[in-house]
Amino acid sequence: MYDRRLVIITGHYGSGKTEFAVNYAIKLKEQFDNVIIVDMDIVNPYFRSREKRDLFNKEGIKVVDSNIKNVNVDLPALPAEISGAILNKNAKTILDVGGDPVGARVLSRYAEDIKSIEYDMFFVINGNRPQTNTCDKAIKYLRAIETASGLKVTGLINNTHVLKDTSVEDVERGHELTKKVSWETDIPIRYESALEKVVLNINNKEILEKIFPINLYMREDWMS
């Protein structure tokens, strides 16, 4: 993983951006001692990276989130510690940002700090979501997030899924969609994300070159 020190994960609600962010943080920890994940999602009250604090503590990953301790409370209380995580040259920092332009606007508070350093901002695409299931829709959403945050997307992630029912065909269809978005925007595809059991059946060489196997940390066993 040769991404920049600060990585921002964003995308439409339901794209699986938080699931990717959690998996990404755990993968980074295998290579780096100091990993921080910042939960900046003040929009989605259900699936947030902060909910996996016990997992992160076990892995030795630091979590920074709002000052609200109840994970079901949704208020824009953002601590000064976020700026410290962004500017910490000795840490690999991941920002898990709210899944729409309103959530991305939180980033604008820190845009000047972020622009002062090298960063990556990844846009997660789930081709099974109606708001991002065409090239034009995905680009429109991507540009709205860029406008709201004041930052530029530097990479795309194909994370086309149907949770535990995801098939190879879902991943391949998402790949073709993400490739079109890449062609139109000149933004490279950085990762092709899929469940580990699905990865075993993928034969497409383009996908395999950038494959990022994930686990469903954000879905409990009883969830569909």
The largest beta-sheet arranges its strands as 3-2-4-1-5-6-7-8
Report the uncertain regions: 68-75, 220-224
Termini separation: 31 Å
Rounded mean pLDDT score: 86
CATH superfamily descriptor: P-loop containing nucleotide triphosphate hydrolases
Structural account:
Helix 6 (135-149) crosses helix 7. The chain has a single domain, classed as P-loop containing nucleotide triphosphate hydrolases (Rossmann fold). By secondary structure, it is α/β, with parallel strands linked by helices. Mean pLDDT is 86; it is low at 68-75 and 220-224. It has an 8-stranded parallel β-sheet, with helices on both faces. It has 9 helices and 8 strands.
